[in-house]
Specification:
alpha/beta; 2-enoyl-CoA Hydratase, Chain A, domain 1; three-stranded parallel beta sheet; three-stranded antiparallel beta sheet; flat
Length: 127
């Protein structure tokens, strides 16, 4: 399912790039816990992508989780960005611990950052 979603997003990006003349796309990789340094790094990347007039900024994410305040800061930067920001979890086997939240007790599943429901207990989680 993740592979299909990644291919779909890649296809959308390629279609958008095919229509744009000499458009550039920014790319950064986040590999590790989310904290103030990560939030600052993403903010600088968004600013640079805006200054370069990139078609979008792609963030390749692999994180076990991190600080909630830093995650909130990052999300606010996404909302304020003039450049579209695409975040995807990669490479194969990567995790996005900060992008998950538990639904109410009556719902026995997780909702990932992508918005797709994930069955309870996936990848050994037993919460």
């Amino acid at each position: 399912m993740r592979k299909r979603a990644t291919l779909f997003i890649a296809g959308l990006l390629l279609a958008a790039l095919a229509q744009a003349n000499a458009a550039s796309v920014g790319l950064i990789r986040i590999n590790g816990p989310i904290g103030p340094a990560t939030a600052s790094y993403i903010a600088r990347a968004i600013e640079l992508a805006g200054n370069r007039k990139d078609a979008c900024l792609v963030i390749e994410l692999d994180t076990p989780g991190g600080l909630l305040d830093s995650t909130k800061d990052i999300v606010q930067k996404f909302y304020a960005s003039a450049v579209p920001v695409v975040v995807y979890v990669a490479p194969q086997g990567a995790n996005a611990g900060s992008g998950r939240r538990r639904h109410g007790a009556e719902h026995q599943h997780w909702r990932g950052a992508s918005g797709f429901d994930q069955p309870h207990g996936r990848r050994g989680e037993d919460r």
